[in-house]
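go over this:
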Amino acid sequence: MLPKTQYAKSDDVHIAYQVYGSGSRNLVLVPGFISQIETYWEQPEFAKWLERVGQFSKVAMFDKRGTGLSDRGVAVPDMDKRMDDIRAVMDAVGMATAYVMGISEGGSLASVFAAYHPKRCEGLILYGAFAQFKSWFPTQEALRQLFEYAEEHWGSGAALPLFCPDTGSDPSLQEWWGKYERTGASPRDLIEIMKVNSQIDITEILPSIKASTLVLHKTDDGLIDIEGGRTLAQLIPGAKIVEFSGRDHFPFLGDERDQILGEIEAFVTGLKPKPVFDRVLAAVVFTDIVESTSQAQRLGDKLWHATLEQHDAIVRDQLMQFRGHEVKSLGDGFLATFDGPGRAIHCAKAISDAVSKLNLEVRIGVHTGEVEVSSDDVRGISVNIAARIAELGGGGDIVVSRTVKDLVAGSGLDFESLGRRKLKGLPEAWHVYKAV
């Protein structure tokens, strides 16, 4: 059952809020530049994300004055009035203290609240947030384009790719975001709110924050530059920053969402959550730089480090192009998964070709089978097989299992048999092939 929308009185303004969850710790969610708390639940991934937060905390979330279901048409609020709205909601739900989590532009408000009301803030969580508006809109031209969008296309959802480069073109997600825009603010109100937001610069107050602080940010966030998060972590005393892969600004989208939830839970409860495993069929890919040790000795530490950075950037770019999921970096290689073996092989070929321009050779192993998936790793016999298969290759080789070869039949991919090979640690020989 969805939470009931209620109203708290902040001076003479009505603030819409919801409270839900069964956890023992209090958590207040401070939204971004616009919100509509009932529309949250209409997006399946967002709803699941919120439900997960409610498993370890009692959650209060609200629409800021002038947005969503709160009173509209009120004077554009300053930070003081917005802080009053947080207090009004906390008072209405009986939260003397709470962890305060600011998302996106809401992170600035949450930070100011933590600085001015330390007795009510048990801890501060900042996701995809910033201290200065330029981390969001670095130029006046960029802001002008938003205003033009508000005047001409507001409510269409067409701006979603700016927030979520990887998933923002999905028609159903755009339809939901269009409704979110329409119910979150009118075009006029949006423009007025953003004019006020454009003056945000809270750098001077950050050193005054006494609450334990967790900063969460996606390194390639498509909306808020990572330096915005890094600045927060640098200026807030004792703050911890955790960076995640991914480009979609929303915390509930992307493979990293479970990692984000895990960090929030650990911070709020003080307990590291037990990993949740799921078994799925996946194409597992291992990459490995051939003779990396001798290469490092030949180039020296500085040049080898620079070469590795270029190698890593190339691999990640190709994984993105072919919709692969980076599980982890292995120092001189990567472990990744794909939802289809054909794309896995095409990606492997692209990686091999691209890194050769750095005078590097990689060997790559590909196998398909069931794996156990947790929030930040994959495991199982299929992972071991892919690793052992990769070890059979030489420079530039892409070695695959018979399972992979059979699954891509008819794709136009060609293979050369390497015969049956004994794989280290496995009881039986495997028939393997080299992609040519």
Remarks:
- The mean pLDDT is 91.
- Residues 367 and 386 are 5 Å apart (CA to CA).
- The first helix runs from residue 37 to 40.
- The longest strand covers residues 278-289.
